[in-house]
TrEMBL record:
<dbReference type="Pfam" id="PF13692">
    <property type="entry name" value="Glyco_trans_1_4"/>
</dbReference>
<protein>
    <submittedName>
        <fullName>Glycosyltransferase family 1 protein</fullName>
    </submittedName>
</protein>
<feature type="region of interest" description="Disordered">
    <location>
        <begin position="1"/>
        <end position="25"/>
    </location>
</feature>
Length: 412
């Protein structure tokens, strides 16, 4: 998940990817999310979770501001999305200091909250840097969904680690995007919970059935070795280059926008095909045409804590998977022998060779499906929501007790 993802690379998923609005009478406060990722960039963890929250209450998704090259009156743009989420973008003039920018955004948000009657709301953070524009508000609950170790990413903003420590003090709950990240964050917050990447099984399961091959992939020969995701500093470019050189008989299909690295850095062998970013709804049709799916991640600071969502998505699509030794892939997928792990080009090539015939392994298929039956975004959302409701009820009870104690004191 990059810190500077450009907007409008991929469109939002349609209503078919999320549950219908709940008719439950259980009250839930409005939810305001502060994010460093554009909603319309890549459909991933924030979209999966917040689309589900939006079925039970109002959800605002506050993005980083859009800076105009000329003078413009500061204002908010509200973008309605099919899933019920409202995307909020502040438009600001060029030349503001970061302090003035944050103050302007805070003022715009306060005015919008007043206009739309946002009084009981939860703050949900993906980036600690958003504290600069939100610390003076009074949410009923504060959540930090820490999906990555952002301070290790390329172009991470100065002061991010300091703001994260401030957010730890404010947050009642900390969720993490994987177990490795949890092991780090639980040392910094007493109420941290691991929620690793999950799946929409029905969506990716479409790839197990015959589907039309997309036009830009149809002419590529087999065997096809695929990867989808953001192409940035986490991709092991040299591994891809060596694999393509060592195995000219294989075709490497790379799907995803190129971010924070130059196109000139990418290997350009004839058997590597860069197809660009695709809509979330299109991914099963591409996966259906692959013979093996890969996680070509480099071993660097930006990948130390990642828990790739694509791991269970590949498996749900029925594709054999080969990965570099990312800790949250090794555990549990490698340890359960659901995904093959390889640390160098020679071993990776041998693992792909094995994976090319793995679809015929009925035991692997059975074990994979048994594991996938234990995870889903619906389950992740429900477990998060239960924790949040518990904290809200505890706070309400505590406030009632304090009020009662104060009344007794004043009466005595």
């Amino acid at each position: 998940m990059s810190l500077n993802d450009p907007a409008q690379v991929n469109s939002s998923a349609s209503d078919s990817t999320i549950p219908a609005r709940s008719t439950s009478s259980e009250s839930f406060p409005d939810l305001v999310c502060f994010a460093h990722l554009h909603w319309d960039f890549v459909w991933q963890r924030p979209q999966h979770l917040l689309s589900r929250f939006a079925q039970h209450g109002r959800v605002l998704y506050v993005e980083d501001p859009f800076i105009h090259p000329d003078q413009v009156e500061p204002h908010l743009e509200i973008k309605e999305r099919q899933n019920g989420v409202k995307v909020v973008v502040a438009h600001l003039p060029f030349g503001l200091t970061w302090q003035d920018s944050d103050a302007a955004q805070a003022k715009l948000l306060a005015e919008y909250f007043e206009k739309e009657n946002f009084k009981q709301y939860i703050f949900w953070y993906y980036t600690p840097m958003a504290l600069n524009k939100s610390r003076d508000f009074r949410p009923v609950l504060t959540i930090y969904d820490c999906m990555d170790e952002l301070a290790s990413f390329k172009f991470a903003p100065a002061g991010l680690r300091e703001r994260e420590q401030e957010l730890f003090k404010k947050a009642e709950l900390v969720f993490t995007g994987g177990y490795t990240l949890y092991e780090s964050k639980k040392l910094q917050h007493p109420d941290a919970y691991p929620f690793p990447s999950s799946i929409d099984k029905d969506h990716f399961g479409q790839a197990r059935q015959p589907m039309a091959d997309p036009a830009d992939q149809a002419g590529i020969a087999h065997p096809r070795i695929g990867f989808f995701g953001v192409v940035d500093e986490r991709l092991d470019i040299e591994l891809l280059r060596q694999l393509a050189t060592n195995h000219p008989e294989w075709q490497f299909v790379i799907i995803g926008p190129v971010v924070k690295i130059s196109d000139d850095q990418l290997p350009r062998q004839q058997n590597i095909h860069y197809l660009g970013g695709k809509d979330y709804l299109e991914l099963p049709s591409y996966l259906q045409g692959w013979d093996v799916a890969t996680l070509l991640f480099a071993d660097n600071e930006s990948t130390k804590f990642i828990s790739p969502t694509k791991t269970p998505e590949y498996l749900a699509a029925g594709r054999p998977v080969v990965s570099t030794p990312i800790r949250d892939v090794v555990r549990p997928y490698g340890e359960l022998d659901l995904v093959q792990i390889a640390a160098n080009a020679d071993d990776f090539g041998r693992a792909i060779d094995k994976a090319l015939v793995q679809t015929q392994d009925t035991d692997w298929r059975r074990r994979t499906d048994e594991y996938l039956a234990t995870i889903s975004w619906d389950l992740t959302w429900q477990q998060m929501r239960d924790l949040m409701l518990d904290r809200l009820q505890a706070k309400t009870a505590g406030q009632a007790s304090e009020t009662a104690d104060a009344s007794l004191i004043s009466a005595s």
